[in-house]
Batch of 3 targets.
Target 1
Amino acid sequence: MMPEEFESVYQVLGKDFSNAGKVSTSIKDTLKRMGINPSVVRRVAIVSYEAEMNLVMYATRGKMALSVSRDAVTLKVDDEGPGIPDVSLALQEGYSTATPEMREMGFGAGMGLPNMRRNADEFDISSEVGRGTRLFIRVQQAA
Amino acid sequence: MVAQYHHSLRFDVDRCDGCMSCMRACPTAAVRVRKGRAVKLADRCIDCGECIRVCPRAAIVPLTDQMADLSKFECKVAIPSPALYAQFDTEIFPGMIFSALKQCGFDYVESASPACDAVTIATEIFLNEFRGQYPLISSFCPTIVRLLQVKYPEMVDQLLPVLAPREISARDAKLRISKETGLPPEKIGAVYITPCPSKIVAILEHPGMQRSHLDAAVSICDLFQILAAAVSRVQESEFRIDAVESASGLSWSFLGNLPRSLPAENTLSVAGLANVIRILDDVEKGRLRKYRYIECHACPEGCVGGCLTVENPYLARGKAIKLQQSLPAAYIVDRQDVEASYRKKEFLMDEYLTGRPLRPLDEDISRAIFKMKERDRILSDLPRIDCGACGAPSCRAFAEDVVLGEAEKDSCVFFWQRDLEDRIEQLANLVRIQKQTTGGLS
């Protein structure tokens, strides 16, 4: 028997603040229905929410691909957007490029990417200025 | 093992005509309509009472106690929810309502205000000394506790482990009356005058406590008629001076009752289940870390909006505020006394709250993954207009029911119609082929 894997792709539009957060809520509810360990669900919820908000705030559009297997929950994020000129700087806690509007909404503490990395077992980021950013996040299910 | 949950609502099959109002209103998708009657899914129901509000045929019966049920107690003490006072006109004071409650058959009436004030102080002490994960979420509303247990099981540790004022009132009243009368506490029935059915569940399941100090709950709407008649007969000379209420005690009945010790920007007040769910989703996603305390009410505007009250929640809130203006602003309990009792753990829950997550699609992850794929495949065949004709509140819920073997795919009228159209087309094709081979001789 093939190892089962559940996959679902979600589209996110940049600047669509009225729907911001819905994808990560949907991801979290889907994981709960599959009986995924609550602490894994919570970590994925945090990671997917940060990823979704980054898309909404910075990108033109993007997609978030969730896949769930017996061993792990994986999230691949792929956006069309401005890209990040200095990835290692963006990964530092407290570094932020948030506009005053974003700060008014409670973002821009410079914790987005660091927070994602902290909650992931595997984390990879690549970015091209003027094209977009790709993220790979894997959260391991407890053995 | 199937866990047994207590519930405070009963669906009356003789009255239900299957109109689906409750199914559409249920915030946790706990209602299905099967064979033309509404059915409750016990593991999903959190006893919020939204179904009671919308049922046009009064087919959902709250399982609160009736006055006749109380005769089993040798001595009865009423503990009115502060929301009770807001049901009456503003010239009716708590003292008159106390006398009226006694005329209705209660031996004693215990004001909830001292306990409300004490719990407010205890909460401030707890928050001050707490060094765990924020935000803490209020636990006085039993529906909120149940919501976390069912939908956010990994967040139950964030529920404030301080007892609800109604429990403190019941405990103190029993002790005092027992001392006064010599009756053993178990002969004294502590009866909450409740704005909602969820307090019944809290009495039966006593989350966070070894047992509840309350013994019964009578609803405001059941009691209102005889109570209002009794109020109109109360003479001024009969005003009870033991109706000691405080302005801060009354503020427990509506939205915005926050610990004064915390800066306003670190607290939140939320009412109405749909709003509470959105806020808890944000807490779960780590968005609200700067908040330290979130006050959550399941009902609109708080307890004044309970589904077993009689007054419009907004008018009731206005009346509660008006009444507050005539009451002392200061706490009516002594802070040092409360602090001493707090140190003796008299205000804290004595059991851990535990989650009771919904049963997943399958206990085995591989099979659950398979079923989730199956659910999405079925869902892609459905119209996604959530018409409800199949008896499930949404196409998604229906797809899940099908995967779990609790519904048939053909119950969807759209799916069935499309299936029929396909078959008709196949038959027409067959007829055409037959005609071609026979040259239309038939």
Target 2
Amino acid sequence: MAKCIAFHSYKGGTGKTTLACNFAASLVKKGYRVFLLDLDVSAPSIQAYFEKTPKRWVNDFLINEADVEALATDMTDIITEHEKQDGPASENKKGKLWVGFCNPKKEEIYKIEGGKEEISKMQLLRKFILLREQLISEYSVDYIIIDTSPGIRYWSINALAVADILFLTLKMGDLDIDGTKKMADDIYGSLTKFGAKSYLILNRVAGFCVPHTMTNPTSGNNARVVIEQEDESDVSSRISKTVGMDVISAIPCYCDIQFSRKEFLTVLKYPDHPFADQIMRLSEQIQVKV
Amino acid sequence: MQNEEKQDTCAMCGKTINEQKKQILVEKIDDANYIFDSEDCALIFKRFRSLYGNNFSV
């Protein structure tokens, strides 16, 4: 039975898209049939990870200008090319990856934000429900992974409402934590009440790239201060208690990924990277949770 | 969307149910009957109602 997983956050810049793309690739590596759907309609960025211009966009489907076959871009080759380099795949099943890209042009964003009078928001919503249904029935997908817009917006709410599993990603700042808690209280209860499961993903947790000591600017170059760091399980437990939601993964900050000028899929390009390990573990955990 | 008005369409996805020859699901939500063509549609509809309140209808 297909499962729909939405990656959401209170604020932008939490690493949602990086997590969603890598998570989708990790499931394909395990042999699953996956459809990755960009629904961050106001700031689509999945295209940067795949360097592909699709025949048609998700936007075209929603406004009745394309069918599902035209928007579904088969990106399985990107996985198999890497697997050839890494040696034979360990799984017997052959995974598939399709991606539905969202159009970043402002006039196309405006159309699906409900700006075009002849297409009401409710018509768009029904097309979205139909898209989910068609991906399940016609593509026999095991997973639909949705990258949503941050915060409480029309399309992020739509994505959350159709999802079976909600991943709420956040960074460790108090502003992000407080906002996440507020949003979890406001909307997540309405979704979990009707069968959805929600989990926090703590991203960019300090501890991997931050040195334990640093120069104290007020005391001169030779003086050093200790940076207070919490144990990973302490962080998870504290945030879980604050937000009122279980933490499924706490991913350290990796500067080589965060500050790379070009986006890439770590699980494919650097499968031995600790970030790739974290993502592979997340995809194993989700098999147990569903 | 009350069942008196559109008895043959799913309250969530809007598909005509009779044409599909699917089993009709009737759910009583806040004292009104709604019909759906699948359990998924019923569940999604309830989530939207819970999020947006009683005024939500497609």
Target 3
Amino acid sequence: MTGWLFHATLIVLTVLIVAYLYRVVRGPTVFDRLLGLNGISTKAIVLLVVIGTIYERVDMFVDISTGYALLNLVSALAVAKYLEHKEVAR
Amino acid sequence: MIWIVVAPIAAGLFFLVVAAIGMVRMPDVFSRSHALALTDTLGASLVLLGLALHQGWTLTAGKTVVVLILLLLLNPVISHATLRAALRTGLKPWKRGT
């Protein structure tokens, strides 16, 4: 009944990932790329839950997206702390 | 009955599109982070809320709400750390005319 809605959500999210990918490739500083990657990972978390809803296996996919959210936090914090030194970010 | 699922997901997709336009069009890192915050607070959380409502009273819906709360808690931490690093490496915020 609402299958069209989830497929439309998939298509919109994929197009938006391309828009964020433009910012990752063209970003003037390295922090623009980092913010763009953060946006892409947020989209990927939502995308995993939507894919699970379409295939009716949400109980499996929602665990994967939880792990992805925690992994995203650790990696983004590590990269941000690494880039705080002035010589590295140039 | 169907609209209680369709309405949050459609509103969330609208906010996600607005945030992506801001991410492409804004002039510097700090204002782009302002656009990106819209993704986490309204966009992704409304879409996940609609998906949780679609599943009804199950454990999976609770897990989806847990993912929503994780996004709401963790994404401000990430953007704050990134912008603090940007400010400490000497990046100046954008002003009109410079």
